[in-house]
Design brief:
The structure is a single chain. By secondary structure, the chain is mostly helical. The chain is built from 10 helices and 2 strands; from the N terminus they run ααααβααβαααα. It has a two-stranded antiparallel ribbon with strand order 1-2. The C terminus is likely disordered.
Length: 316
């Protein structure tokens, strides 16, 4: 009986953190609708903290379950899909009419598609990278942009009587659409889950991590958004570099197989057996075997001629 009760509490603990994540996301939505955008931003940050804890608690307690995975995805859709979309809509997109409504909805839609793809391909894609920008990171970037723009003095200032958009609304529109596209893209974003470091590099990585945490803590209004956008830009640059290297590799391999050889044509355009390029024998081995065949056939002809000469001499 005690074992059964302990099992119930163990499985209840990770779901408690997931419920706190969902509650913070719901609070963010209510705060955005009431015009309290700063509270909405920090509520999304708190939801991200709870979201990072529920999975770790489940793994430490060995209480991972299919129910927990589905519950976590539904909570993430509310906290990191719906809540940031409502925040951006109340922040700037509502003044852009139907365009703003569509862009805010696209962010929610792309977040839902990103979560569905993650649940389907979680055991297929390696853990060393994410396919598409994770939805919690997209939500934190969009939320921290409000703090960043307010700190640099670029935050849109809409009066109660204003119904038209301003120039400060366009960056919000572009950022919301950009993050939505990144979520459903096939770009690779490093996850750092399978990062193997040598012992001599551990101290350097530790010092850099502590320095970044201190910078974010001292000036989180600017450093959090700058750090996350730097991560996105570097990840996109790595994907572009990987694509260029792949194309160069393909073009380099195509130099060894011209169109005539792939079609099975010789130099004069006449047909010849096509070469597949996967023969286990090299060209030198093939020429050597041909030479051996010619030598063998010539020796056979000489032996046949030697045997025929005595027969002719007897006739004479």
């Amino acid at each position: 009986m005690q074992t059964k009760a302990r099992g119930i509490y163990v499985y209840f603990l990770p779901n408690l953190f997931t419920s706190a994540n969902l509650g913070a996301g719901f609070f963010s939505i209510i705060a955005s609708l009431n015009g309290q955008l700063e509270r909405a931003v920090y509520a999304i940050f708190i939801a991200a903290i709870f979201d990072s804890l529920d999975g770790r608690v489940a793994r430490l307690a060995k209480a991972e379950s299919a129910f927990g995975e589905e519950y976590d995805s539904l909570s993430d859709l509310v906290s990191f899909g719906l809540a940031p979309a409502v925040l951006s809509y109340e922040w700037a997109l509502r003044y852009m009419g139907r365009v703003g409504f569509v862009v805010a909805f696209l962010f929610v839609l792309c977040g839902a598609l990103r979560l569905a793809r993650f649940n389907v391909m979680t055991h297929v894609i390696p853990k060393s990278y994410f396919q598409g920008l994770p939805i919690p990171m997209a939500a934190i970037i969009l939320s921290s942009a409000w703090l960043f723009m307010g700190e640099v003095g670029f935050l849109p200032n809409h009066d109660a009587s204003m119904t038209l958009f301003t120039m400060q609304d366009f960056p919000v529109l572009g950022l919301t659409l950009f993050l939505g596209i990144l979520m459903i893209s096939t770009l690779r974003f490093p996850s750092f889950k399978e990062l193997h470091l040598e012992s001599r590099h551990l101290m350097g990585v530790f010092l850099v991590s502590v320095g970044l945490i201190l910078l974010i803590a001292l000036r989180h209004e600017i450093m959090l958004f700058s750090f996350l956008m730097g991560y996105v830009v570097v990840s996109i640059a790595m994907n572009i570099r990987r694509h260029i290297r792949k194309r160069k590799r393909k073009s380099f391999s195509s130099l060894f197989y011209d169109e005539d050889s792939l079609l099975g044509l010789d130099d004069e355009g006449e047909g010849s057996p096509p070469s597949t390029g996967f023969s286990s024998r090299s060209s030198s081995e093939t020429s050597e075997s041909l030479v051996k065949t010619e030598v063998y056939s010539s020796s056979q002809n000489e032996s046949d001629s030697d045997e025929s000469e005595p027969k002719t001499s007897k006739v004479y």
